[in-house]
Amino acid sequence: MLSKKEIFSIPNILCYIRILLVPVFLYTFFILDHPHAHMISAGVLILSSLSDFLDGFIARKFDMITELGKLIDPIADKLTQIVVALTLAYTYPSFWTLVAIIIVKDSMLLIGGLVVYKKKHKHLAQAEFPGKIATAVFFVVSILLIAFYIPGSPLAEIMIYATLLLMFIAMIYYAKGLIALYQDNETV
To answer: What CA–CA distance (Å, rounded) separates 124 from 139?
Structure first.
């Protein structure tokens, strides 16, 4: 049973806020009738990104890492990432390739991770450096593409394909890690 202290820890509250910002982001991007709606959408995404940074920082700095946080943080991350990617694919068709990479990478991590855990009782670290860089670039590029709304421009295409390349590199890195864990003959 989860304690109130765990449920209402500051890092977990920040995760809840991040999840609640997803529909706010969708509303500001697709429905809000305001001359600066795209800037407001970008602001919501900046707020979400800051809450992501802060929840991890606070959890580590003040030893507030919880089992609930280990569950909801990646859910909030993936939910935000896939919603933003699908939203941008609506405006920037090149983003569909990035959506595909994200789905393949995350499916591989989920399914491959379960297989490795079942067989070896081991798992990959939460987030490795290539994945963190790819995700950070993804959000910076997404914020810029939303704020400045430049579909079809060469700059948008360069940013999208650079992000795609980094996501692909992260996917390969994680695939190698899963394969290495699976092939590891060390007993647990």
So the answer is: 23
